[in-house]
Structures are given as C-alpha cells and as structure tokens.
C-alpha cells in the first residue's frame, strides 16, 4: 500500500511539474506568432480528441486573454478548402469530414471513428426513437416499432455509449427507461436534442408507427443528452 501511495505521489508531482512548465501565455513571442501557436494548439487538441472538446478545456492551452471563438473562426477559414471542418456538437468542438465527401468514404469502405457508421438501420432507428421519446422503456419502444425490441439491441447500444439507463418508469413493475448520451449527440452530429430531424421522416420510412403520437407523450428530460442514471438493465 505504501509503495502504491509513493508511486501515485510521484505521478502527481510529475504532472504538476509538466503543467507548470507549459507556457500558455507565450509572452516572449510576437502577437502574430502567439496567435498562430494558439491556433495550432487548439486544432491539435480537437484533432486528438475522440469526443467534442469544450471551450473550457481549450482554454487550458491558450493565454488568459485569448478568445476561443475567434481562434475557431480563423481555423475554420483555413479549412475552407479542405474536406474536413471544425463543427460544434454535443457542447464542444470536433473535426468532421464534410458531408459532400461521405460518398467517397463509403466507396472506400474504410473504418471510421463514428460509431454511427457501424450501426444497422434497425439500431439507428431505435437510438433515434429513444432520442425523441426519452425516457422510454423497452416495452414502449416495442410498441412504437410494432415489434419487440430485444435486450441484445439495447445492450449493444449501451455498450456503444449511445444509450444510458434513465429513471425507473412509474408503470407497474417499475421497468427501466433509457435515455441518450452526449456520445449520441456527438456521433450523429447534433448540438442538442432539438436538432433531431422531423419524426415524420422516420414514420414515412415505415420505421415507426403512430403509437408514438397517440400513446407516448413525453418531455425530454435531457436536452443536452446527458446521462441520468447509470443502472444496469435488469
């Protein structure tokens, strides 16, 4: 136990030393060089992260008087002619390939960083339905689709980080409900749940039935897509 404690203290000291050595302000450089370096730092952090990066996180690598939004504007201008861009989704900034190049990526059939690309049409429809009607039980989802939604489907979406357990339903037996996560917003490119497409598009495609309007009148408990309760499915 003592050895572990000593190791932890060593790691903390090392991290503290690295943090103190990191020059955020760059006061010794010219304004133009300083701004350019801050731009590169911000882009590097966004590029390296698998999740959207918040303004607060980006502020840790630039000077105290630096405007993150102005930096992002300059980066977006530089990327104007590139096949990728910086977008704001799920409360943060993220690199995304431009939609016009999606056909080329699909034709190349290369693995991508988006979990959405690996979902079947049925799984994508289920997660979108949860986005509309959350918190929603598996039984309610089955009624919405007119067929049973399996536990395996729910488990797979939870394992992918797209679903989380919500509050228990007041229905008899208090079944679990499900809600979407911030990773869901990031995966599908939404800033908030208000960005979900019109539900009629899913109905027109035959993926949902009118039970959604007639029998499921819910208020989204988490417009930001944040997880509510991390219980395991019974």
Automatic annotation (TrEMBL):
Signal peptide: none annotated. It comes from the Bacteria. Residues 223-234 have a biased composition (Acidic residues). Residues 1-23, 214-234 are annotated as: Disordered. The keyword Cell cycle applies. Keywords: Cell cycle, Cell division, Chromosome partition, Cytoplasm. Pfam families: SMC_ScpB (PF04079). This is SMC-Scp complex subunit ScpB.
